[in-house]
Amino acid sequence: MTSATYEIGMVGLGVMGRNLLLNMADNGYSVAGYDLDKTKVEALRREAETRDIRGAESLAEFASMLRSPRAVMMLVPAGPPVDGVIKDLLPHLARGDLIIDGGNSYFKDTDLRTRALAEKGILYMGVGVSGGEQGARHGPSIMPGGSREAYERVRPVLEAVAAKADGEPCVTYLGGGSAGHYVKMVHNGIEYGLLELIAETYDLLRRGLGLSDNELHTVFDTWNRGELNGYLIEITADIFCRGDELATGKRLIDSILDEAKQKGTGKWTSQDAMDLQVPVPTLDIAVAMRDLSAFKTEREAAARLLGGPPRKMRAGRGPFLRQLNQALYAAMVITYAQGMVLLLRASHAYEYGLNLEDVARIWRAGCIIRSTLLDDIRAAYRAQPTLANLLVDSHLGRLVTDRQEALRGVVKRAVQLGIPAPGLAVSLNYFDGYRSDWLPANLIQAQRDYFGAHTYERVDMKGVFHTQWQSE
After folding, report:
1. What integer pLDDT is reported at residue 472 of this predicted model?
2. pTM higher than 0.85 for the full model?
3. Closest Cα to residue 185, out of 265, 276, 93, 273?
4. HSE of 324 in the Cβ direction (CA atoms, 13 Å)?
5. Residue 148 burial class via C-beta count within 10 angstroms: exposed 0-12, middle 13-18, buried 19 and up
């Protein structure tokens, strides 16, 4: 057997696992890797070069390489693969060892695994990792949850490999149980919302203004140099420049099918928000529009049958671009606001004890939703740790209020053109609903009491009431 000298092990040597392992080794840690696919173990060995990395042929050999108490990280697909790895690992582990799930596991599964492994004396952490292939290799945003004891054991390595923002590592202890996976889930839900808003903006520029791919690149590149600066705007600008190697003279974006896939984290965010009765309509509509995009054949048939207004804008290009810039910024603030409210409510409901300033801080670099806006979000929670909603922060609220007319104008123009922009529209409606001191829910109370005797409350006295609405 190999002597137990390696500081941390990785099960799952796909792109993310292998790159994160290389990142650890580059930061001075001795690491071991294992994968059922032997070609991935060989790939790790080739890339190791002079680094202190060892690939294992079996889980028994892998476990024997690790210092006791062992720390094993998994980066495998969520669901049954995670349970399969845990089952196969357990015979080779001892009490006090630590398993870290670095994938996108459903947070309730993480809670179940934490309790089950605790009975065996095994520590378990659910850790969100965001940043994709390049982030894993050069510095991701890392969102750890679990016991404080477990976190402190691996804190040095996580801080070493994490992205850095203003010299600070984009990782911190978030809370007990599934806190890390929950925060990563909401991160992905916000990501869904932002991607939908950017896609709608692209549609208005392409089908509304008729911009070419070169012009689209210029617009997004220019926006990325201003207040919209962020990773998603940056990569959007780059996408419009990429040529299609399979179709001479075309840009790749124009050869990609308009059907968006999803892996479930956006849906999980919407589902749990509904369970907690937290409205996140921009996130919800982003999931729904991905679902609608999959109805490609039906959409093509409907396009031939159902008429609509001409999709050609007569307004000046310059004024609309400025309006669209401001509208997208306002909608993005509103989207972050919805996600942060969900984190606040979940923190109480699941007893995570989240610090939202910390969440915003570790999202500032490495992760997919990183943007300049997160500095303002962090400042808002630093000033008011229990802030109910980012929209009532004096600075961010004013930024959205000052841009609301631009958002209204863009939504109106989209409706006139018949170009779907539900993310922008529902963001505006969330803003209007939240700032409304009266909503027509009194009628809904009356209707429910009328047909189902569900009772209602009154504005002028305490208690629960029921009325016989229909006379005998």
Report:
1. 54
2. yes
3. 265
4. 27
5. exposed
Farthest-apart Cα atoms in the chain, separation: 89
Are the CB atoms for 159 and 142 separated by under 8 Å?
no
Q: DSSP states of 197-223 as a string?
A: HHHHHHHIIIIIS---HHHHHHHHHHH
Comparing CA positions, the residue from 278, 78, 73, 76 lying closest to residue 189 is: 278
With the C-alpha atoms ordered 381, 383, 389, 395, is the resulting torsion angle positive or negative? negative
Q: In what order do the strands lie in the sheet with 123-130?
A: 53-55, 31-34, 8-11, 71-74, 98-101, 123-130, 141-145
Torsion of CA 311, 313, 318, 319, to 10 degrees: -110
184-434 sits in which CATH class? mainly alpha
pLDDT for res 315? 66
Q: Cα–Cα distances in Å, from 411 out to 204, 227, 436?
A: 10, 21, 19
The pLDDT score that the predictor gives to residue 1 is: 45
In sequence order, what are the beta bridge partners of 74? 11, 101
Helix or strand run (H / E) with residue 85: helix 80-89
CB contact set of 116 (below 8 Å; sequence gap of 6+): none
CATH 1.20.5.320 residue ranges of the chain are: 440-472
β-bridge partners, 141: 130
From the options 1.20.5.320, 3.40.50.300, 3.30.70.2190, 3.30.1490.270, give the CATH code of 440-472. 1.20.5.320
Q: Which of the 8 DSSP states describes residue 469?
A: -
Residue 437: CB atoms within 10 A of its CB come to 4
pLDDT < 70 stretches in the chain: 1-3, 315, 472
Contact 117, 123 (CB under 8 A): yes
In terms of C-beta density within 10 A (0-12 exposed, 13-18 middle, 19 or more buried), how is residue 99 classed?
A: buried
Q: What span, in angstroms and rounded, lies between the C-alpha atoms of 182 and 131? A: 17
Residue 259's SS3 state is: coil
Per DSSP, the three-state class of 165 is: strand
- In this prediction, residue 443 carries a pLDDT of 97
Return d(Cα 265, Cα 190) in angstroms, integer. Answer: 10
Looking at residue 251, what DSSP letter applies?
B
Please state whether the peptide bond connecting residue 422 to the residue before it is cis, i.e. omega within 30 degrees of 0. no
CATH of domain 8-177: 3.40.50.720
Give yes or no for a contact between 126 and 145, defined as CB atoms under 8 angstroms apart.
Answer: yes
Q: Are 30 and 6 in contact (CB under 8 A)?
A: yes
The confidence score (pLDDT) of residue 2 equals 53
Does residue 114 sit in helix, strand or coil? helix
Give the residue range(s) of CATH 1.10.1040.10 domains in the chain: 184-434
Catalytic residues: 184, 191
Determine if residue 213 is left, alpha or beta; phi over 0 gives left, psi from -120 to 50 gives alpha, anything else beta. alpha
